[in-house]
Amino acid sequence: MLVTDDRAAALAHAESYLSQGAVLVEEHLSGPEVSLFFISDGDTVRALSPAQDYKRALDGDKGPNTGGMGAYSPLPWLTERFGGEAEFVELITREVALPVVKHLDAEGTPFIGLLYAGLIVTDGGVRVIEFNARFGDPETQVVLPRLVSPLSELLMAAASGTLEDVAQPAFAEAVAITVVVASEGYPAAPVTGRPVGGLDAAASVTGVHLAHAATANDGGGLVATGGRVVDVVALGTTFAEARKRAYEAVDLIALEGSQHRTDIAAGVIER
């Protein structure tokens, strides 16, 4: 897959694959992306707090696409465009999530579980990029730490068809960001097997916890086993505070050749 605004690069990419079959060309959409998770019991949905992730490998949204190099939540800039997070969530629930769930139910295939809507806010409105039937990574790492309502209650209600009896999920005022520490060579050819150190020190930073993504104990300690190795998740009262904590912890992690983005949530307007 290639995402580009360079016509020549797009044509060259397409021509390189024509010998293998058809090439799909899709509309290029510009604007900030939003990930919004819904829990569904097949009829009712409950939305979690929106998040934004960073797909490109390098600062400034440069470099190749990845599985995600970081994320933050909530999204204060939604207020300027939609009047607030609650208004945005209500809009997407009404115009995207509920129609999908109702349609699947009408087809005799009720959707019960987690519906992940990948969205992009364009000048012409909100567009759906993709749906997934799972939590998103790394967005989940910044959404769930802010969740005040019991997640188990929401999941049990979805499984038992009683979600309409459960209130809309509540979230803390705290903000959260996550910074992904990745192996050298990621995403094309990540180097694996290298020791990962400094994790205890990183986890001791105030407001920080670590989510392991591609680590294993080889008997002598933890080593990297894939591209995205560790997620550094930080909570704070402001994005400035959360960023300071996250990057303080990142600097304590020792992984030869590791890479991470330094601009996660850097452009967020404080509420």
Give a structural overview.
With 271 residues, the protein is an alpha+beta fold. It has two domains: 30-171, 2-Layer Sandwich (D-amino Acid Aminotransferase, Chain A, domain 1), CATH 3.30.470.20; 173-271, Glycinamide Ribonucleotide Synthetase, Chain A, domain 4 (Alpha-Beta Complex), CATH 3.90.600.10. 25% of the residues lie in helices and 27% in strands. The chain contains seven helices and 13 strands. It has helices at 7-17, 78-82, 85-106, 140-143, 151-160, 199-203, 239-250, and strands at residues 33-41, 45-47, 52-53, 56-58, 62-65, 70-73, 112-122, 125-132, 175-182, 208-212, 215-217, 222-224, 228-236. A five-stranded antiparallel beta sheet has the order 3-6-9-13-10. Strand 1 and strand 2 (45-47) form a beta hairpin. The longest helix has 22 residues, at 85-106. 35% of the residues are buried.
